[in-house]
Amino acid sequence: MATIKMVADYAGVSTATVSRALSSPDLVTPETRKKVQKAIEHLGYAPNFNARSLRALRTTKIVMMVPDIANPFFSEVVQGAEEAAQLAGYSVLLGDTKDDAERENQYASMLLSNEVDGVIFLGHRLPAILSRMVSERGFRAPVVNACDFTADHGISGVRIDNEAAAFAATELLLAMGHHHLGVIAGPLDSPITQARLAGVRRCLGQQGLGEQVRVSHGSYTMEDGAEEASAFLQSPERPTALFCFSDELALGALSALRTVNLSCPGDVSIVGFDDVRFARFVAPPLTTVRQPMRRIGESAVNLLLSILAGRSETQEIVTLQHELVMRQSTGPAHQPG
């Protein structure tokens, strides 16, 4: 087990400096803080959090780590979190991680240095710097996972039933006669991508159409949606429908259709995922899976506050309800000729 002395020796500083870097980081130079953080991460050191909580006052601050602050889905999640936190007298600090593991560790280290009382992360990676705390305290660690949730971390979190949501969207397209589908999914290492793909394949399998789908992967951006849709549209057997795993991907796909003078839904139907604010304002308005974005943020904060108050008795997984929203971007499958 790593000790504060081992951290100090590795960083080449005194134990007092390590303690100061954790408790009063503003009194330590950025260079020294970086050395201490690197040592902590390398050695897997974690302070005695139970003892610290007895002697330290609350900061009334939470850090929320967002994979992409420009994504409108996350902005609504953050708004819900802000509202719940404000009601409880807490402030939310935002960390735009750009889905980068090193940036995630930098923001997560604020918990170790007593700059915040808890962490909410909206991506799927548990920051490595928190792994020891979570392994020791489990669901009692002041860490909550939301959106791209996996129960494997052993911490509490918030999600929707992504497999069921994707099943419902696929079922809709099959009912409209679409038996040649293209799926523009998210990153393959993402739990929500895996769950949604499972829903698509389960639905197709029940209809005996397991081979009638082609899958590409993007990064939930409009640019990737346009690029992946263009590849589908140029293929000899063009899909009659595209199921995009985010509304941003779907908007990119709509742009790709216009570029090659194809209509939606006349030539190709499109289904998105999230129901971000502008999904109903595009032309045509987007059929999509609605996620309760604000409630995700509210629920994540309330879970964290429950942990901080010592009320958590077990790992709690909150599964919120999704809704399939029918608009004008879907229609019957186009019949050639």
TrEMBL record:
Pfam families tied to this protein: LacI, Peripla_BP_3
Keyword hit for Transcription: yes
Residues annotated as signal peptide: none
Matches recorded under PROSITE patterns: HTH_LACI_2 (PS50932)
HTH lacI-type domain boundaries: 2-56
MF GO annotations: DNA-binding transcription factor activity; transcription cis-regulatory region binding
Record keywords, A-Z: DNA-binding, Repressor, Transcription, Transcription regulation
PANTHER family for the chain: HTH-TYPE TRANSCRIPTIONAL REPRESSOR CYTR, LACI-RELATED TRANSCRIPTIONAL REPRESSOR
UniProt-recorded name of the protein: Transcriptional regulator, LacI family
Organism field: Sphingobium chlorophenolicum L-1
